[in-house]
Amino acid sequence: MKKVLQIPNYLYPNIGGIEQVARDIANALALTGDYDQKIICFNETARDGDYVCNRKETVHDVVDGIEVIRCGCITKKASQSISLTFGCELFKVMNDFNPDIVIFHYPNPFEAAFLMKYLNRDFKFVLYWHLDIVKQKLLGKLFNGQTIKLLERADKVIATSPLYVEGSFYLSKYKSKCQIIPNCISETRMTVSDSIKERAYELKTQNFGKIMCFGVGRHIPYKGFKYLVEASKYLDDRFVVFIAGEGDLTKELKNQAKGDSKILFIGRLSDEELIAYYLAMDIFCFPSITKNEAFGIALAEGMYFGKPAVTFNIPGSGVNYVNDKNVTGYEVPNGDSKAYAEAIIKLADDDKKRETMGIAAKSRVNELFITSKFQENIRTMLAGI
Fold first, then answer.
1. For residue 364, is it left (φ>0), alpha (ψ between -120 and 50) or beta?
2. 180 vs 32: CA distance, rounded Å
3. What does the DSSP assignment read for 108-168?
4. Is the dihedral of CA 189, 193, 195, 199 positive or negative?
5. In whole angstroms, what is the distance from residue 65 CA to residue 188 CA?
6. Domains plus CATH for the chain?
7. Which helix (H) or strand (E) holds 52?
8. What is the distance between the alpha carbons of residues 351 and 72, in angstroms, rounded to a whole number?
9. Are 220 and 249 in contact (CB under 8 A)?
10. Mean of the pLDDT values across residues 207-221?
C-alpha cells in the first residue's frame, strides 16, 4: 500500500478551489483501497454544522476517514498564513509516515520553504499547479528560486487546462513534465430534488417574460462583477440579472448598480437555492477578468445545467478552456462591458442558439469535468509515476 501525503493550504470546512481539489484527490484514492493517506495544512477559522476549526489551534482530526494535521496560524501576510507549528508537524509526518508520494498544492511559499528540506528524499513528487502568483508580483519574484527548485524536482506537474500551461511563464518552460487534469464538479452536490424543482419553477414564475441572467462568486476584483454591473446598463428591460455571493466589493457593487432595477443582489446561497437558480436561469454570466481565475468551477456548474455562458477572454486562463468559444457560449474581449452585453443580447434574441449552446455546454461538462473523470485521471497519473 503506497503512502500519500498531500500539502494544500487549507481543507474542509474551509471552502475554496484548492481545498476542494485536495479533498477530491483524497476521495479518489480512498475508493481504491490501495493508498494510505495523510494531509497536512494550515488551520483557519471555519464552520460547517458541528464541524468547527479555529485558526490558532494545531490539531489532528479526520475528514472523509483521512487524518488531517491542521497547523495553527498566528497571522497572514500577503494572503499567506504564517504558522509556528508547521515545520515541526511536517518533520514528524515526513519521518514517521515517510510518504511514497507527496502532492504539493502550489502556490504556497511558506509551506514550500519547509518542504524544500526534504526534496532530496526518495519519494515521487507531484506539483499540483493551481495558479501563478499573479496578484503579489513582488512575492512571486522573491520566491522565483523556490518555484524553479520545485519544478525541477517534480516528477509530474499537474495543470487544470492546456491554456494555463501555454500562458504560464513557468509551466510553458516545463511542458514535458505537465499533465492536464481538469477540475471537477460534484454531481452529488448538484443533485436536483423535487423541492429544488419547485423553487426553480417559482423563480421562473416570478420572472415570467424575463431573460434570467445569473452570476455567482466572491465579490472581489478578479471576479469582474463590476463589468457585469456595467454591462447591465446596455440591456433593456426584458432582462433581469441576479448576482449571488458576497465579499469586500459587495457594497461598492451595490452603489454602482443604484438606479438599475434589472440587477438584484441575492447574497450567499445554500446549495439548494444555488441549484434552483442554475435551473431557472437562461444565461450564465461568468465575468472573471484575470488568471487568478485559473479554471472556473462555478462556470462548469452552470454549464452542467445546460445553460450557455458568457465569459471574457483571459489570456492563459482555463476559463476559455471550460467555455468553448462559440460552442458552449460566447467569449468577448476582456473588460469590454458593452461587448459582454451584446453577447447576452445575442443569446436572448436566438432561442435556438441558447438551446444548442446549452446542450453543448452540458455535454462538455459530462465529458471532461465530472467527478468520475477526475478520479480516473488522478489514479492513472499516480499509477504512472
1. alpha
2. 22
3. -HHHHHHHGGGTTSSSEEEEEE-----S-HHHHHHTHHHHHHHHHH-SEEEES-HHHHHH-
4. positive
5. 19
6. 2-184+370-383 (3.40.50.2000), 194-368 (3.40.50.2000)
7. strand 51-53
8. 53
9. yes
10. 96
Scan for cell 462591458, then name that residue.
337
* Chain Cα centroid distance, residue 296: 5
DSSP code, position 93: I
pLDDT at 9 over 90: yes
All cell numbers assigned to 60? 489532528
Cβ(234)–Cβ(338) below 8 Å: yes
User: Which residue is associated with the grid cell 476582456?
Assistant: 334
Q: Is 91 helix (H, G, I), strand (E, B) or coil?
A: helix
Strand partners, 40: 69
Report the amino acid identity of residue 314.
Answer: I
Element holding 66 (H helix, E strand): strand 66-71
The three grid cell numbers given for residue 97, joined into one nine-digit string: 509516515
Place of cell 429544488: 196
What pLDDT does residue 139 have?
58
Closest CA to 186 of 37, 294, 27: 27
What distance in Å separates the CA atoms of residue 344 and residue 312, rounded to the nearest whole number?
Answer: 12
Nearest residue to 66 via CA among 93, 105, 106: 93
pLDDT in tens, 336-383: 999 999 999 999 999 999 999 999 999 999 999 999 999 999 999 999
